[in-house]
Design a protein that fits this description.
alpha+beta; Pseudouridine synthase; 21% helix; 6 helices; Alpha-Beta Plaits; 37% strand; 9-stranded mixed sheet; two-stranded antiparallel ribbon; globular; 2 domains
Amino acid sequence: MILNINKPLEWSSFDVVKKIRSGLGIKKVGHAGTLDPLATGVLIILTNKDTKKQQKFMQMPKEYEFEMFLGVTSPTYDLEGPLDFTEGFTTPSENEVLEAFSSYKGTIQQKVPPFSAVKHKGKPLYKYAREGKLKEDMIPTKEVTIYDLELLEYVDTKQFPVTGKGVELPFIKGRVNCSKGTYIRSLVYDVGKDLGMGAVLSNLVRTKVGPYTLENSLTIDQALKP
């Protein structure tokens, strides 16, 4: 069985696997591409014999819609980590944002986020980071392909959702079509660095995995209906 699940916010990908396994009474269940807990959208769940197709699904191009704020950074590259607001930055023009986007189209070398499950000597990077023992040369670089990177919205000032102190920062909404292994958090971090003011990912939705779309996805409750 192949299930196109719309992963809920704050669920891990394995949480969905466990729910499907227990809800349908199927022992052999897996997924084809992790989504972070703060991301939502298309998560392909495979059961029984279809678990053998995992690599096929992993290789499919992915599409995401993402939101990001400029002028703030975080060690996790998103809203989970402690936030550091940039002082004295110059708000970029829309053309400067477009120029930054265009530099990432094609095959690029992308450094994985420090807070990720990628392992160094058998230990996830996020564990080194939490212990304050992560060094720059421990963070690997991967070759990924950005097939398309589109600017959907750019506004000079928008209410930042975390502080509750009326902070307004430049806001970007974009859409990216990319290869397996692309970290959208790293893409956001790199764009913010290029613009000279830092950035954090504030929302992420996976809208496509190959031909499987968000519009055709099921909620977990729908998938568990007899």
